[in-house]
Amino acid sequence: MQAATTNDRVLLITGTRKGIGKYLAEYYLGQGNRVIGCSRGPSSIEHDYYRHFQLDVTDEPEVVEMFRSISNTEDRLDVLINNAGIASMNHLLLTPVKAVQNILATNFVGTFLLCREAAKVMKRRQFGRIVNFTSVATPLKLEGEAVYAASKAAVVSFTQITAKELAPFKITVNAIGPTPIQTDLIRSVAPEKIEKIIKAQPIQRLGEMKDVANVVDFFIQPASDFITGQVIYLGGV
Amino acid sequence: MRAWESGVIGANLNEQIERAISRAIDDLNLQLPEDSKVEKSPDAVLFGKNGQLDSLGLVSFIVEVERNVEEELGVSIILADERALSQQNSPFMSLKSLEKYVALLIKEDASSHHK
């Protein structure tokens, strides 16, 4: 199956109400692509080619219903960008189990559900690009981020194994691991903590949205059909 | 409209299931070489020893059957759940056993909505 050109694709991006997800949705809409977004809150994007689903990515019936609706209205799904995620920083001894369940549910179970349903749709056309989100918190092994880093480590393993399972269907699965970027996700993190993370990066600066878009562009471009199971961390980590 | 709302469960159910499965085989056969096309005979072994499908073929087939059942009957079923995988006689052994299992799942879905 021929890949769609780079301005005529159908992309599904999770967590599009704010932050990186919103940036990526507007970035790909700006190129003329059709974008389907979702978040727990209402849409914050107004665009003729944008369609929003208000849902929780951990809710299986809601996610399945979204894909049913996508299958009914779109002729294909080219790209899934699994951006939705939550963070929480706590010492192990001060971490409530509810926080652990929430982080694993959104960061891992959500990624799993979206991948499974997207792959069912992509498989029909024997073409698909999936980009998952991990974090530099995993390789940097940062104190205070045990649960968040573990949830993102799960995404790495999941990405590498599903890349093998979906390769026969010509679906690639890769992951990006951003450094801290100025978004709500790190708003509550102490500045000295962010400074410490940046000091651990070979390239010592905050990440920017365009750094993420650059890596996603690489993973989803038609020429990347021989790239799967890879993880690219920003900042040289 | 769901299957039980339109009263299709009963006489038409088996026909619709058969059609859903048959379409899945047609789709699968489009991707298979001439000498390994899946036979539509009810007793032909689908998966397992002497089965017509390898594990990847079975995965593809199950996904297509789930989708076609939803299109035909408006019922969303999960075929490869823990129960199916733990049954002594796998529902994926033959087309006949698969049809029976799909009918069971649809009836269970209908009764759970009537409660």
Features:
heterodimer, A: 237 residues, globular, B: 115 residues, mainly alpha, 4 helices, 57% helix, disordered N terminus
Shape verdict of chain A:
globular
- How many DSSP H or I helices of chain B? 4
Structural class of the helix and strand makeup of chain B? Answer: mainly alpha
Task: Estimate what percentage of residues of chain B fall within beta strands.
Answer: under 5%
List the strand order in the largest sheet of chain A: 3-2-1-4-5-6-7
Number of helices of chain A: 7
Question: Uncertain spans of chain B, ≥5 residues at pLDDT below 50?
Answer: 1-8
* Proportion of beta-strand residues of chain A: 15-25%
Q: What is the number of E strands of chain A? A: 7
Global structural class of chain A:
alpha/beta
Helix content of chain A: 40-55%
Helix content range of chain B: 55-70%
> How far apart, in Å, are the first and last alpha carbons of chain A?
36 Å
- List the quaternary state of the chains: heterodimer
Compact description:
Chain A is 43% helix and 15% strand. The mean pLDDT of chain A is 94. Chain A is α/β, with parallel strands linked by helices and 237 residues long.
Describe the 3D structure.
The complex is a heterodimer of chains A (237) and B (115). Chain A has 237 residues and is an alpha/beta fold. Chain A has helices spanning 19-30, 60-73, 97-125, 137-140, 146-166, 191-199, 209-220, and strands at 10-14, 34-39, 50-54, 79-82, 128-133, 171-177, 231-233. In chain A, strands 3-2-1-4-5-6-7 form a seven-stranded parallel β-sheet, with helices on both faces. In chain A, strand 1 (10-14), helix 1 (19-30) and strand 2 form a beta-alpha-beta unit. With 115 residues, chain B is mostly helical. In chain B, helix 1 (11-31) packs across helix 4. The longest helix of chain B has 21 residues, at 11-31. Chain B is globular, with a radius of gyration of 14 Å. The interface between A and B is small, with 6 and 6 residues.
